[in-house]
Design goal:
binds S-adenosylmethionine, globular, Rossmann fold, disordered N terminus, alpha/beta, 8-stranded mixed β-sheet
Length: 252
Amino acid sequence: MSSPLKEGIFWEIHSGLPREGPGDNASTSKAFSMLTDLPDAPFILDIACGPGMQTMELARLCNGDIVALDTHQEFLDELDRRAVAAKVEDRVTTVNASMFELPFDEDSFDLIWCEGAIYILGFEEGLTQWRPLLKNKGYLAVTNACYLKSEIPDAVRKMWESDYPGITTIENSLEAITLSGYKSLDHFILPSSSWMDNYYTPKEERIKMLRTKYIGNADALKELDESQSEVDMYRKYSDFYGYVFFVMQSAE
Ligand SMILES: C[S@@+](CC[C@H](N)C(=O)[O-])C[C@H]1O[C@@H](n2cnc3c(N)ncnc32)[C@H](O)[C@@H]1O
């Protein structure tokens, strides 16, 4: 369990960033365009929405109602503000609940969306547990970290073993999709700009600012170093891992 100091720094690094993981509106839009048979006003569940950049893009892309779920109330409040500013608050409903205990009936959604967070449950677990919530032939679109090459440097393996031991290749992920009862419609690797523009660059600026605030505080500076090293690793090793958008349809 994190110490109060660690948690304090974590949220100080993360609060108020445009988004909480790699992604961008162009990639959200590209994945959405692959859902050819969605109703005009689909009922959508956005799991682990964070501050909701992708939720807002989904609201722009269709006339559907979106339930945006997360466990961190501050993100949900930010999304509520964004929805009001864009005048879509009647179509975006935030829910504070965990993906481990989703409070929804089976056969509820035309589309389930999850950018950057299925790893919390585990890729196969997420695919399996969420499928019953989809209506017949409903869609699921998720992003997940994958290895992009067969030979992975030790430093990269070590990092992922600690952060997300379930990381695997695109091929293995596609196999898991089929085995979990979906038809894969398409997949693509997120561009490196989706790591930098909305996520790592604002995060680095925040880290720089907090270094000044916490000067002389060894615990806080260590935490900031760890956060910075994640960005440095990506700069050095982005050929070897990336986020992949997987778009699929429930097979029955
Ligand atoms: C990597 S961020 C992704 C956020 C957003 N989808 C994005 O791409 O900006 C992961 C999100 O998962 C949320 N989260 C963590 N544990 C969760 C859980 N058990 N159920 C739902 N959301 C959770 C965090 O609060 C955070 O917003």
